[in-house]
Amino acid sequence: MPVSKARRLSFAERVDPAHAALVVVDVQNNFCHPRGFHGRAGADLSMMPAMAERVGALVDAARRNGVLVVWVRATYDLVHQGAALAEQLARGGRDPVRCPEGDWEAGWLAPLAPAEAPNEVVVTKHRYSAFWDTEIDLYLRSNDIRTVVMTGVVTSGCVDSTARDAFFRNYRVVLARDACADNALARHEAALDKLSTTFGVSCPAADVVAAWDAAPPGPRGWHEASKRALALSTVEEMADPRHAALVVVDMQNDFCHPLGVMARRGEDVSHNGAIVPVIARLIAAARAAGAMVVHVNGQYGLASGSPASLFGPDGPKVTMEICLPGSWGARQLDELAPVPGEPVVVKHRLSAFVDTGLDLLLRSNGIRALVVVGTATQACIESTVRDARFRDYVVVVPEDAVGARGRMRHMHEASLEVMRAYFAEVVPAARVLARWRA
C-alpha cells in the first residue's frame, strides 16, 4: 500500500476550501419545523434551532471562502418509493408520502436556502443516502472534491447514510457535530460516535469556520481555471503512467482461442488472435513504465443471468455456454495472463463498469485515463469506453489492439468511428507504446 494513501492529514488540509464541500442534508420543514410532519407527530425537535444556526454559520463561511455547497433535499413520493421503503414509512398506520414535491413541507427551513451561485447546487434524493439516485457524486468528482463536511438532519438517519456512502466512495468525512440534529439526543450521540470512530472525524462547526477563514485565497476546484489545468488533452498526457491504466477486456479462451466456444461454433476468431501480440507489448510496456494494468474477464451462466440476459434477443446461446465460471474457456489467454498483484475484475454484462468494482478500483488509485484493449470492439469494448467517459475518465483506444469476430468486422470499423467521434482518442498502439517506453 502506498504510504501516501495512509498519511494522516492535518485538520487544515482535511477541510481545505479548494477541495472540500459543505453538504447540507434535509434541512426542510417536514423534518425541522414544529408544524412539519415530525413536529405534528410529537417528535423532539429541541435540537433543531441550534443546528440551523450553526448550519447558517457554515454556509456563510462557505460563501465567504468559495467553498462548494451541496444542498440535499428529500422527497418521498409513491412513484419513487419501492415497496421496502413504503412499508417502512407506513409503519404505525402513517402516510408513507413525505415532503411531496411543491409542498410547504418540502421547502427549506427558513432562513436557510441555497443561493443562485456557481458554487451552490441542489440535489433531490428519494432514499436516505444522498448518493442514491442523485447526481451528488457527479458534482463532487467534477469539482475535485476530496472531503465532505456533513451537516443536517437526522444524524442517525440521512446524515449517517450519506456520510457512510461518501466514505465508501473515497471521500474524507468531517462531521460538524453541532450542525447536525436528531429527534433524540441519545441517537444523535450514538450516530456521531460510530461515524467518527469508523468513517471520519467530528468537530464543532466553529472549527471548520475558523479553518476556512484562515485559509489563503486561491483557486477552488469548481473554478474553470482549475478544471482547465487538470485537463488531459493529448494522447501522451492521457497515457502518463502516473494516472493511466491499461484495461484488458475479455481476452479469454472462449472468445479468442481456436479451441474456444466461438471457434467451435464456426466463428472466425483470427482477428482476436492477431491482436494478442500487440496487447502483449502494451502490457509489457505498461508494467515497465509503472502504469496500472487491470484485467477484465467476462463470466456468464445461470447464477448471474437475468430473464432479460438469458432469454432476451441474444438468448442462452450466449450466456449459458460461453465463459462459464471456473471453466477453461473463462480463463484469460496464457500469453496475456495477469501477474501477481494485478487486479482482475469479473463482469457479467458487456460493460466492465456495470455491477463491478472497476470504478472504485480506478478511483482508489488516482486513475484518470484508460487505455482500453481487447474484444469485441462493437460490444464489450465500446460499452466499457462509453461508461468510462460517462464517469469522467478520458480514454485511449489503440485501434490495432481491439478485435472482433470475422463476420462482425464491419461493426468493428463502425464502432471505431463512433468512439473516435464521441468517446475516445483512437490511435495506433505504437503511440501509446512510445509514451510508455519513454
Question: How would you describe this structure in keywords?
Answer:
single chain; alpha/beta; Rossmann fold; 7-stranded parallel sheet; 6-stranded parallel sheet; 22 helices
How would you summarize what this structure contains?
With 438 residues, this protein is α/β, with parallel strands linked by helices.
Task: Write structural notes for this entry.
By secondary structure, the protein is α/β, with parallel strands linked by helices. It folds into two domains: 9-226, 3-Layer(aba) Sandwich (Rossmann fold), CATH 3.40.50; 232-437, Rossmann fold (3-Layer(aba) Sandwich). It has helices at residues 3-6, 11-14, 29-32, 37-40, 48-65, 83-89, 136-142, 155-168, 185-198, 205-214, 224-230, 235-238, 253-256, 261-264, 270-274, 276-289, 307-311, 316-319, 358-364, 377-390, 409-422, 429-437; strands at residues 20-25, 68-74, 120-125, 147-153, 172-181, 201-203, 244-249, 292-298, 344-347, 369-375, 394-398, 402-403, 425-427. Strands 7, 8, 9, 10, 11, 12 and 13 form a seven-stranded parallel beta sheet that branches. A six-stranded parallel beta sheet has the order 3-2-1-4-5-6. Helix 5 (48-65) packs parallel to helix 10 (205-214), helix 8 (155-168) runs parallel beside helix 9 (185-198) and helix 16 (276-289) runs parallel beside helix 22. It is globular and about 70 Å long. 44% of the residues are buried. The mean pLDDT is 95.
